[in-house]
């Protein structure tokens, strides 16, 4: 390269008016006024802008390289040396306003008032002793559906009957109860949603 | 507002969740909208801008009859539809030739707008022979001129270009990724200028970095090669952000707010100064009697008769000796 034969130019820049660094944004703000005559002269303009930018970039690069370094392991052989950037100084507007906090449900409000702490999360799987496997507690092939496809079921002494006095199939009863719970939960969800909307207004 | 229905499946739910406000926001995407009167030059400039903004950009291809300063509702629609917060609208007419309107959105409504007319001496990416840099690298910025800190429109221009091209905010940076720089400069406002717009031109330049060895250890010497686009803008109409929107948009989420350390200050010279509060020292338990003669039993109390104490002590020692014998 021709550059190496000639004398090495210095990598430092002297400025009369100090520039402002914003390394978090990788930006440098140079408050020194530009030479208006050079800018208006078409032949000198480009080289002038370039030389000023070069000086500022050199200053920024020097500033970035003086920041603390960290090593980040990518895989076993390669290690990357990264520069730790500070937080940006120049703040920019957000795109959307801050996320709103989720509205508390009726139960959550009640629990807070009474000081009831949250239950530990129940596992989704449950041990099925008959097959010796872990099966879903609910959902597809859920444990709560065991009753549905039994070929033989015990009937309680005080078995529930319909209004006509007929026995209700306990398999059906089990399913009905499950569906009722689902419906109740849907209603609660809806109520909570409506309450949340009402609170906002 | 676009009507949204409750998502019926997981995929659409994920897509909707992506649009929700976040604590740490995604990179702002830019949407390039050709206006009714756009021309070939603006089309090419928009392609160049889009390639600098890659991959966070989208370009519309059909012309749209939009007058942003009269009615920005279609821009707001585009913003919500495409989930973008930067819109660049290109129009050109006799009064405002080669005009790019840079619009920023906040919550899908117009935050601020500025019109910039591209002067005739522009050059595109393809007019430069140098090879472009890798896609998606963070650029460096240099702003030349005091005007970017003093005049509101220029502040807006500075904020806009930073917002548009800054990319992801990271705290770790690979030095090898520093490959290109966006240089934006403007001369100072000329009070004597009698023309319609006294604002100076904004010079937008993009350079690629070339580094060489230098005599200083560990510091490279930087040279620049222009890669384009080279654009000179004349500022036209503008609309600044309202105080309300600004207040809302500059809120910092409490989760990200840095806690100020107590009793740590930086003094005038930039040195870190800390006040340390040491608890009150309990001197009553200080161990000072390291010698036999200083033990508490040899203390001399003026009320008591010291001689007796010593005698008693001696008696005790004698008894001990007797036992040992």
UniProtKB/TrEMBL annotation, chain A:
InterPro entries in the cross-refs: Ribosom_reg
Basic and acidic residues composition-biased segments: 157-176
Superkingdom of source: Eukaryota
Entries under Pfam families matching the protein: RRS1
Record-level GO cellular component terms: nucleus
Keywords tagged on the record: Nucleus, Ribosome biogenesis
Chief place of localization: nucleus
Compartment(s): Nucleus
GO biological process: ribosome biogenesis
Span list, region Disordered: 156-201
Function statement: Involved in ribosomal large subunit assembly.
Family: Belongs to the RRS1 family.
Protein name: Ribosome biogenesis regulatory protein
UniProtKB/TrEMBL annotation, chain B:
Annotated transmembrane regions: none
PROSITE patterns named among the record's database cross-references: BRIX
A GO molecular-function annotation: rRNA binding
Keywords linked to the UniProt accession: Nucleus
GO cellular component terms, A-Z: nucleolus
Residue ranges, annotated region (Disordered): 284-325
Subcellular location: Nucleus, Nucleolus
SMART domains attached to this UniProt entry: Brix (SM00879)
Domain of life: Eukaryota
Biased composition (Acidic residues): 305-316
Segments forming domain Brix: 28-244
PANTHER family linked: BRIX DOMAIN CONTAINING PROTEIN (PTHR12728), RIBOSOME PRODUCTION FACTOR 2 HOMOLOG (PTHR12728:SF0)
Record-stated family: Belongs to the RPF2 family.
Protein name: Ribosome production factor 2 homolog
